[in-house]
Specification:
It contains 10 helices and 6 strands. It is α/β, with parallel strands linked by helices. Helix 1 packs antiparallel against helix 2 and helix 5 packs parallel to helix 10.
């Protein structure tokens, strides 16, 4: 028999989960590195950064390329590239609106839990047209340690007045899964750029192809959304 989940809220990662931003960030940084002669392992290094907060990514760059690495120059080029890519708007991941509509129809409490800064979260959610759907947004500015630390998820559950164990967390990255699992949340992964490792799979209640599948599984395994079909 399929195990039923006791779910009271859904906690949603933002970049790469709801918003198709990880590819924008990845391509922006790779282009900035390549333009300044850091081409040999830029792709592999940037892949390793997926799901990490900005300060952790900067630390990886300095660790790889040394103290003379032109961090400020690379950051400036990265931001210019990112803004150029985003000029046409910010696309949603497949199934985002379907999932958010389903949660809203079921009056399911939900929160954004992102390693991005507050400024980036507000900008990206607004560009994607879904900012108004969220009353609770937890960002890197709210904690000392970002993902893969569990701090953001623990704080999100506290803000909603719930235990993490009755929250579903939806993540796209290995680092994000590590964070939500360590917090005690029931974790679903919808992989974006990086496939789940064996260790990550072991931490997930489910690994699904898209957010539409997440909604379907929630309807099947959680009483919270049962009967919410429109």
């Amino acid at each position: 028999m399929t195990v039923k989940w006791n779910v009271s809220a859904v906690l949603l990662d933002m970049d790469g989960t709801l918003l198709d931003t990880e590819k924008v960030y990845f391509n922006s940084l790779v282009a900035a590195l390549n333009a300044r002669g850091y081409a040999d392992d830029a792709v592999a290094l940037c892949h390793a950064m997926v799901g990490l907060p900005g300060p952790a990514c900067e630390a990886m760059l300095l660790d790889r390329y040394g103290k003379n690495f032109p961090l400020a120059e690379i950051n400036s080029a990265f931001l210019a590239n990112r803004d150029r890519f985003m000029e046409a708007g910010l696309p949603l991941k497949p199934g985002t609106l379907e999932l958010l509509d389903g949660l809203a129809a079921a009056d399911c409490p939900m929160a954004i839990v992102t390693s991005s800064s507050r400024r980036s979260a507000e900008r990206n959610l607004s560009l994607a047209g879904i900012r108004s759907r969220f009353d609770t947004i937890l960002t890197l500015d709210d904690v000392t340690r970002g993902k893969p630390s569990p701090d953001l998820y623990l704080l999100a559950a506290t803000r909603l007045g719930l235990a993490p164990q009755v929250c579903i967390a939806v993540e796209d990255s290995n680092h994000g899964v590590a964070a939500s699992h360590a917090a005690g949340a029931i974790t679903i992964m919808v992989p974006d750029m990086a496939p789940p490792t064996d260790e990550t799979r072991a931490k997930c209640a489910a690994v699904l192809p898209d957010l539409g599948a997440v909604l379907q599984v929630l309807r099947e395994r959680s009483s919270l959304l049962r009967g919410s079909r429109e």
